[in-house]
Design goal:
Rossmann fold; 3-stranded antiparallel beta sheet; 8-stranded mixed beta sheet; Arc Repressor Mutant, subunit A; 2 domains; 11 strands; alpha/beta
Length: 327
């Protein structure tokens, strides 16, 4: 009773109810909410803290920023949605808030698109060297097949393409990346696709800020060649994978294009099958038949790995350099 009354009291204020309604539409920062509501930053921050303390909102720090959205789990997660559903859809204040929010999202999408236009050539140059992405995506979908999925993790999510691809099949999708610019693009892409159950967060792929055994499917798509220590990335992926879960690693087979290291910051020039299989084995995973997709001159390889039971392995030492994906 006390917990419920505390949550109801937190929501029982006009500004805080408006904040709940806005955060129910997607992730927003304090700056976004200040612009929408036309109130001071300290005032908005105080209201957000009360809502977070009551368990109605989740807060996700990202450098000097923080994103807010409705609580996904906890005793008040469903209460927050019930309260929002009770707001009359023709309420003029809520309608005006929604219009301002849409304007901010349009600006954010335009800024993200402009950044990507400036940077896109780096990925297009590489993609011309290997099999087309639709072929790789078709293999990933085939390997997942009709296995039941609930929670998806995409490590090094980049522009969020894997979340777009698998998002319709999962209850909850999470993408992690170190690059704020990439995360801005991913957020715009997910909003455009209407995948509100998918989120992205800034995080280090060597030290995932996640509990063990929380995902059915983990993807590492065109990320491992940036890694200073690929074994650590795979060990972390295995740690958060549920028993019976599937890890899909898609990356280049071993090659000798040194220009990718010089011009595109690749740390590794692809991988041999036995190399990736060894890391998976150390992490308690069993590699299924590997799929090779030859290109010119790069071959894309997909390594599927299954987790059968509890993992009792020591995670390798964490390196100091954390690199990002480019999906």
């Amino acid at each position: 009773m006390d917990f419920l009354l505390s949550a109801l009291k937190a929501a029982a204020e006009p500004t805080r109810l408006r904040l709940l309604a806005l955060c129910g539409r997607g992730e927003l920062t304090v700056s976004d909410l200040v612009q929408i509501l036309g109130q001071s930053q300290p005032r908005i921050s105080r209201h957000l803290k009360l809502l977070c303390d009551a368990g109605l909102l989740d807060r996700f720090p990202e450098g000097t920023w923080a994103f807010y959205r409705l609580a996904e789990r906890g005793r008040c997660a469903s209460l927050a949605r019930t309260l929002i559903a009770a707001i009359p859809p023709d309420d003029l204040q809520i309608i005006r808030d929604s219009e301002r929010e849409e304007a901010i999202k349009r600006q954010r999408a335009e800024a993200a698109a402009a950044y990507f236009r400036l940077s896109a050539s780096r990925w297009h140059e590489i993609r011309r060297l290997h099999v087309p992405e639709p072929e790789v995506e078709a293999v990933l979908l085939r390997l997942v097949d009709d296995r039941p999925l609930s929670d998806l993790l995409d490590i090094g999510t980049g522009t969020g393409r894997m979340l777009e691809l698998f998002g319709p099949r999962v209850r909850h999708g999470l993408g992690l990346d170190q690059s704020r610019e990439m995360l801005a693009i991913a957020r715009a892409n997910l909003e455009q696709a209407g995948l509100r159950h998918c989120q992205v967060r800034q995080a280090d792929m060597y030290q995932l800020p996640l509990d063990a055994e929380t995902f059915d499917l983990v993807l590492i798509h065109q990320v491992l060649h940036f890694a200073e220590s690929p074994a650590v990335v795979i060990a972390e992926a295995a740690r958060v994978l549920r028993p019976g879960g599937l890890l899909l690693v898609a990356d280049f087979a071993r090659h000798d294009l040194e220009t990718l290291r010089v011009e595109h910051a690749h740390r590794r020039l692809g991988f041999a099958d036995e190399e990736v299989a060894g890391w998976c084995h150390q992490a308690g995973l069993r590699v299924d038949p590997v799929v090779h997709l030859p290109g010119t001159p790069l071959t894309v390889t997909v390594w599927p790995a299954l987790r059968s039971g509890a993992i009792a392995v020591t995670t390798p030492a964490v390196p100091t350099l954390a690199l990002t994906g480019a999906a």
